[in-house]
Each structure stands twice: as structure tokens, then as C-alpha cells.
Amino acid sequence: MKLSAAFVAIVLAACGGKSKPATPPTDQTPPTDTKAEGSGSDTATETKQPDPGPDNEALAQAALAEQYALGKTIYGDKDCDSCHGDNGEGNPKNPPVIGAKAFPEKPLATAKLRKGVTFKTAADVEGFIKAKMPLKSPGTLTDDEAYAVTAWMLSESKVNITAKLDASNAGSINLR
To answer: For the chain, which ranges sit under pLDDT 50?
Structure first.
């Protein structure tokens, strides 16, 4: 009996002294209502579900919204709007970066910076932005800034982005 009492004392101490349910769940899912649906038994008890915590999808959407906001801010702060317009619409000298005509797969014949560069995925756009923009100080954007600007412009152009844009997913996001 001394071994049993010592074992119980250790278990209670490890668990903070709180008692556990008499019958733990047999699988890895959290316990649910123990009353079987349609069983007619009114004596079964309900086991309270632990709070599952924040919803992963909601967290992903919040991170993406934060990235969009950062991208829009960077677009203005880095004077992208001075060449591409306040709304990314472009002008006769500079291409649009938002809208249906933004980021065509093959560069226009008049393109100076894009010769030989194709835009098939978000990674292609981000790589170009990181290397060539802003025009007066190319290569000065951080990775996070380049991904944020790319995410904002592509989302405004109706490209389906479902998670924060980064190196792990940009290559799988097709522009068309």
C-alpha cells in the first residue's frame, strides 16, 4: 500500500492536485458529450470541452490582412505611387501594378526593366520587385517588404491569396 499511496501522491502533485475524469477518452480527440444521440438515456453526463484556442484560419486571415496593410503603406512610403499611380493604375510611361492589365506573363515590347522576365507566379513578381524596385533605389526592400507589396498588389488585382505571402507559398500562387 505504501507504493500505491506514494504513486498517487506523485500523480496528484504532477497534475497540480486536480483530479482527472474517471474515464479518459480512448482516442486522441478531446472528450465530447458522452450522451449517445438517440440513446434515450437521461442519466449520462456531459463532459465540458476545453477551449480549442484561436482558430488557425482566423489567424491566417489576420496575418494576411496585416501583410496587405503593410504592403499598401510601403507602396506609398517608397513612392511606388509616383511612377505607378495612387491606385496602381500606371500611366503612359509606367505599367499598371493593379488591375486586369497588371503583370502580364510576358513583358510588353516597350518594357525596359522586364526584358526576359515572365510573371507566372507570385514568386516571379516578388523577385522582380525585390531586385528592381523602387526604381531610384533598387534592391533596398527587405524580403518582408517585397512580399507585402506583392501581396497587396496581387490581392487588389484579384489574385487568390489565402495565406500570408512568403517564400514557402509564393511559387504556388499562379497569377492566372
So the answer is: 1-44
Question: What does the pLDDT read at residue 47?
Answer: 53
What is the DSSP secondary-structure string of 15-66? TTTPPPPSS--SSSSPP---SPTT---S---PPPPPP--S-HHHHHHHHHHH
Number of domains comprising the chain: 1
Distance CA 32, CA 47 (A): 6
CATH code of the domain containing 103:
1.10.760.10
Structural contact between residues 59 and 51, judged by C-beta atoms closer than 8 angstroms: no
- Helices 56-77 and 143-156: crossing angle, nearest 10°? 100
Please give the biggest Cα pair distance in the chain. Answer: 90
CA gap 149, 68 in Å, rounded: 7
Would 84 be classed as within a structural domain? yes
